[in-house]
Amino acid sequence: MSMALGPGADSPKTEEARASPTPGPGTPTGTPTRTPSRTAPGALTAKPPLAPKPGTTVASGVTARVAAVTAGQVTSGHGAAAATSASTTQALEDPSGPGPGPSGTCEALVAVVTVTPAPEPAENSQDLGSTSSLGPGISGPRGQAPDTLSYLDSVSLMSGTLESLADDVSSMGSDSEINGLALRKTDKYGFLGGSQYSGSLESSIPVDVARQRELKWLEMFSNWDKWLSRRFQKVKLRCRKGIPSSLRAKAWQYLSNSKELLEQNPGKFEELERAPGDPKWLDVIEKDLHRQFPFHEMFAARGGHGQQDLYRILKAYTIYRPDEGYCQAQAPVAAVLLMHMPAEQAFWCLVQICDKYLPGYYSAGLEAIQLDGEIFFALLRRASPLAHRHLRRQRIDPVLYMTEWFMCIFARTLPWASVLRVWDMFFCEGVKIIFRVALVLLRHTLGSVEKLRSCQGMYETMEQLRNLPPQCMQEDFLVHEVTTLPVTEALIERENTAQLKKWRETRGELQYRPSRRLHGSRAIHEERRRQQPPLGPSSSLLSLPGLKSRGSRAAGGAPSPPPPARRASAGPAPGPVVTAEGLHPSLPSPTGNSTPLGSSKETRKQEKERQKQEKEREKERQKQEKEREKQEKERQKWEKEQEKERQKQEKKAQGRKLSLRRKADGPPGPQDGGDRSSASEARQDAYF
Amino acid sequence: MAETYDFLFKFLVIGSAGTGKSCLLHQFIENKFKQDSNHTIGVEFGSRVVNVGGKTVKLQIWDTAGQERFRSVTRSYYRGAAGALLVYDITSRETYNSLAAWLTDARTLASPNIVVILCGNKKDLDPEREVTFLEASRFAQENELMFLETSALTGENVEEAFLKCARTILNKIDSGELDPERMGSGIQYGDASLRQLRQPRSAQAVAPQPCGC
């Protein structure tokens, strides 16, 4: 318990440092002074009636507290699993107490400030094994009421969110359960209201399952390189099942490899923060700060710590990539990251998303998004010919509806539980997931004759696409549909080539050539492997067009220096380095991590046993894995054949009506992908 | 579907980021100020049936993202708009300075005949004003725009702006300056007028199909 409280007690300090106008020790002078000063007239949008409310003097005083509480709740937002298992993480976090605060802080606070109506405390006390979680679990209810209240009061002082919440209820549907006091509670993700507020309807995973998953993930973390290179299928599967909320932040950083970027660039973020920045970008960023998830407690307060952090990382990015600057769609993405991790980590994660996962999405001209729109539309023809035909007849360009979906990775579209699951898969498998989700959504919105009946005109159709049927966005349903949809990386790449060709024919050369898109964590991992051995310039092989930008990034200090040693030691724990992240302190042998779950002696015994078992199991698993991979390949062959057949049939069906168009479009036949090496294609197919 | 109207107009709301486009739309549709809003990525829209000069008109309003780099995407929304609210923020000269570019976009991409009303939004923030009424109204005159200063917060002139635009379009239809039956006019007959007219709509409905480009 004391362990848990340790970092928790720290938190107000660290946060205060950040919140107060005087820059904290590490904080650059430029940023914080600028933010508050701007947010004051940033009452800019806070027009007269609003202005008295925000009374900025009040704000800065209270922010610290808000921040502290927020931090706790945000992570508590990770759900029941987070709280129950907080013990695991807390203990892990503990030794690193002094390390970069927020993440540790969050975890520690979890149990203490939970507002969620959830049954965590009960679960905790039932679980006799977890003594240490019992502590904060008990202290929770006691301390919570006053804290919560004053926090909420302070929020309502500072922003209009709560008041306007009442209005907003109407738009949340008539059967909304939210009313009166209930409004003031956050859901388990930290939302105070709005369309993404989750009622109590969420299915939660049984505690023991959650804990098992955590252990598995911890084991993966400790051998990450090995897992990625040799047992990626398993990693993928686990991402699809949903990353345990307590470990989500860390997993995202591992999957995106932002973790390594952070390690290789110590102090870089601070340096970027300190740089003056281009006013052209800063102005736009400031205008957007209060417009990100205004119903999330972290971002509800004007000038609160969530908004400040948002400012920091968005600004840092414009300095990191001056050629890219700031795109408004980056803000929601950054905000989602910030809900899970401290600013510096969120920044590097954002960098990975913008550079590796979705290169060009946020660049001037937005060509990449338009191109993906075309690719999407081509894929839709297979996934849902009806929807495809309908949209085509209505002349609804893909960019009319998919822009926000793709650019924000659905962060503004789906219910929150689904957002997180989608992001889990996205970090692992890359853009393919975005395509699949979008295809699923369209298929279930416009995919049948009855559904189309209510969308006679363009406007009705668009309206339908803005108000997707809730059942198709529901977490489990969506994930199931997404994982069974046969849209592979190879397919996307093939379509990419085809659409790029079309683009060149009709619109000329691309103005902006982004670097090559990497399909998820394995591709990122492989790229890194290729780059890091002293290969020298031959890495140009990877991406001809990307060379330039990569060069500029190199100037930014990103790549080379440390790796070789680490590469060699791919096996055991990247431990010490991780500690620096403040996420994962002592050597994380999977079993060591479970220590806090039980009384220590017992657990140690158990651990040893478990280690043995684990090793044996590991061997077995590897065998199985190999077998499974074989089967997987066979299945894929079979599926390819099926796909071909289906296409044939589709063509026949279409052929009757649209023989002309068919010729024009041409079958998406093998010759499209011909220029890609077929070997890589086969491998990519195996991903799916 | 049950609603009947004489005409349907497609409207755009355009202008730089943070000028209050979405808030104007929200104020017009819901009659209240939208306090906690996301910024628009891509497009939002809303519709409302209004009564203008004895005719019922359904306004179908497309609200666009303001940031410069979204323009390439938002262009696809322009097609076939009959009217537009061109919005700037009276407390930000920068947003005023980019008006010309927005106007060009609207006239080239939507239609040269598009009826545009210039809206100096955030009228309630008069003390922080950077663009004078006179200056803007001169700009409006030079470019043949109507002009109003609006406040999405208080609602002042918001409804007026939309109605004024609609009224002008109706007048142009009456005077024959605008032909609703021309493709891409942004105007459609509603059910009410369809009953009186000899089904001009069927021609329209068929039109898009042959060009399966």
Automatic annotation (TrEMBL), chain A:
Keywords: GTPase activation
SUPFAM superfamilies reported in the protein's UniProt record: Ypt/Rab-GAP domain of gyp1p (SSF47923)
Pfam families associated with the record: RabGAP-TBC
Domain Rab-GAP TBC: 242-430
Keyword Isomerase: no
Region (Disordered): 1-58, 74-105, 119-146, 511-688
Gene Ontology molecular-function annotations: GTPase activator activity; small GTPase binding
The protein, known as: TBC1 domain family member 10B
Gene: TBC1D10B
